[in-house]
Specification:
258 residues; alpha+beta; two-stranded antiparallel sheet; 6 helices; 7 strands; 28% helix; globular
Length: 258
């Protein structure tokens, strides 16, 4: 029997083309947030207290390409209780094959969002392409880093406690190969990057494709929506999730650390 058992089918199921999906988030922060729903006031909790493994990628120094702790980051991995409940169910499914989720980032302090949006990302893009300027530069920045906001009507996804960056690993062991670094701001991180040009694929590429498929399907079948340009980013209930899934409104707004 295959080591992945019934999960092998998900490793063989293609991720749909993300070309059309990339158009959906445009203007997503204008979608309403349902403040009268029960989920809106859910508190934040550390996912690790509920059996979900992880380490805040921005709060330690073994974190390429940064190799430093990002000022303002926290050791905790905070998410809404309803989001954590779904992660627990996903973990149970993965556990049948000896796998588990590994969370890299969750609720994000505004200081971290400001640093990457205003400083690191534009600087990196300008280093690669000195001709990038003005609106073109900021459009490229915001493909990967949402503008920091404490506007209750238009929060950054990670400010809601409903967005997560994560991967899959063997229980208490190494992470599955996904084909790129976490936070690789290039087309290599696109969710469907390995669903094309198979003739040129290496064994490494095929393994990354299978593992991205597994992550995509276990998350999406639990109701999460994945960012089309970031294989690691998933959300459940925020405005980006609503835009990606065609819903009229979000469940979660701006969160505060209790």
């Amino acid at each position: 029997m295959n080591v992945f058992g019934p999960l092998q089918e998900l490793r063989e199921r293609p991720i749909p083309s993300q070309a059309e999906v990339r158009l959906r988030p445009k203007g997503y922060r204008k979608l309403p947030i349902m403040r009268d729903n029960a989920r809106f006031s859910e508190p934040l909790a550390d996912v690790r207290l509920h059996g979900i493994a992880g380490q805040n990628f921005y709060n330690h120094t073994h974190n390429p390409p940064y190799w430093c702790r990002i000022a303002g980051s926290l050791p905790e991995l905070l998410a809404r209780e309803g989001v954590i409940s779904e992660l627990i169910r996903i973990n149970a499914r993965l556990g049948e094959a000896g796998l588990e989720l590994f969370v890299l980032d969750a609720w994000r302090p505004r200081a971290v969002q400001v640093y990457f949006h205003d400083v690191w990302m534009p600087g990196e893009l300008k280093r690669r392409n000195p001709l990038l300027e003005g609106e073109e530069l900021w459009r490229e920045v915001e493909r990967y880093w949402a503008a920091p906001s404490i506007d209750a009507g238009a929060p950054a996804p990670h400010a809601t406690g409903a967005a997560l960056d994560l991967t899959i690993r063997w229980k208490d062991a190494e992470q599955l190969w996904m084909g790129s670094l976490f936070d690789d701001v290039s087309s290599l991180s696109h969710r469907d990057r390995f669903e094309m040009d198979e003739a040129a694929f290496s064994f490494s590429d095929k393994e990354a494709r299978a593992n991205r498929r597994l992550l995509h399907w276990v998350m999406s079948e639990a109701g999460f929506a994945g960012h089309p340009d970031e294989w690691w980013h998933y959300s459940l209930g925020d405005q980006l999730w609503a835009a990606l899934t065609g819903r009229d409104a979000a469940w979660y707004g701006l969160a505060r650390e209790d």
